[in-house]
Design goal:
3-stranded mixed beta sheet; globular
Length: about 325
């Protein structure tokens, strides 16, 4: 089927477009290239378009006979969302509502929505199940939760079928070396550690060494970007087969500390780092209970061991100068 991939020039979106193509679907990439990359569009043609300008989108969806949407287009920096919440509510909520309205006008009734573990806020239990209380601690998480709730109401009223996939920590790179992670600014630990090891940036800051964890540093659940892409294709197939709308966690159920990540990258090349104070709002541990994704989608991470993630990321960053 033809699938519109919004934000398909970005990190996860580009990997999902590749997975769609490999599964026999035809991706159409919609991206304004504000943070995505033209070089990442290798599967499906690019529609250089901004969701803020959706006047012609319903006609395009009808003309192209688009049957479903994977929606990745969003602003995603937690710190920036605190400083500039207006940007986040306009881009992540208002523009997504515009997309949903365009879909309904064109008769497109299936969407896989890129959500986040940020909807939970500071966890009360670990691992975190999908029915955990939703108490976002920043505007980014609020926008994702707002859209999950909107999807539920749109589904009830208009028959829209949806899956919201709540990622934990996306990481790694395409094992074939065709795609990888390139953010500006970069905030993710694994690329920061790799770039520090390559001498491309200063030492890694370890934010907090006094958490109630085995080594005192924060623990996160890292999921390979290729496994995330596979989950999106499976979610699309699930909706196509008549599956019920719902939200699902995407993680491994296994957490790694900041020091474990640095040590794992350090097996390839030494990583300079320095201790720093905790950042406000960083919980000690975020680990997914992803049992429902396995049961509902038949999804099981294939490359999400920390060594495989870091090796794929290292291969990408060490060979790519972007």
């Amino acid at each position: 089927m033809k699938v519109l991939v919004t934000g398909g020039a970005g990190y996860i979106g580009s990997h999902a477009a590749k997975a769609l193509g490999q599964a026999g679907h035809e991706p159409l990439v919609l991206d304004n290239l504000s943070s995505g990359h033209r070089w990442a569009i290798k599967w499906g043609r690019l529609l250089e378009w901004d969701l803020a300008d959706t006047e012609l989108l319903p006609q395009f969806l009808e003309k192209e006979k688009v049957e479903a949407v994977l929606h990745f287009a969003a602003s995603l920096l937690v710190g920036e969302s605190v400083q500039h919440p207006r940007k986040y509510f306009w881009n992540n909520v208002v523009n997504t509502l515009r997309l949903l309205d365009a879909m309904l006008e064109a008769g497109v009734k299936r969407i896989v929505f890129s959500s986040s573990a940020a909807v939970y806020g500071t966890p009360q239990t670990v691992p975190i199940p999908e029915d955990h209380p939703k108490l976002p601690s920043n505007p980014y998480g609020e926008t994702k939760l707002a859209m999950e709730r909107a999807l539920q109401w749109y589904g009830n009223a208009y028959g829209l079928k949806w899956i919201a996939l709540r990622y934990f920590n996306a990481a790694g790179a395409d094992p074939d070396g065709e795609l990888g992670e390139n953010h500006d600014p970069e905030t993710h630990l694994i690329p920061l550690a790799i770039k520090a090891a390559l001498g491309q940036r200063p030492p890694v800051d370890v934010y907090g060494t006094d958490y109630p964890t085995p080594d005192g540093t924060a623990i996160r659940d890292y999921i390979h970007v290729g496994d995330l892409a596979d989950a999106h294709v499976r979610a699309l197939d699930y909706l196509t087969a008549g599956g019920e709308s719902r939200a699902l966690n995407l993680g491994t159920g296994r957490g790694y500390s900041v020091r474990e990540v640095i040590d794992t990258v350090g097996k390839i090349s030494s990583v300079p780092f320095r201790d720093a104070p905790r950042r406000a709002g960083d919980p000690p541990a975020l680990v997914a209970d992803a049992g429902h994704a396995a049961a509902v989608l038949g999804w099981k991470p294939q490359r999400s061991g920390l060594e495989a993630i870091t090796q794929d990321a290292w291969n990408w960053h060490s060979k790519t100068r972007l």
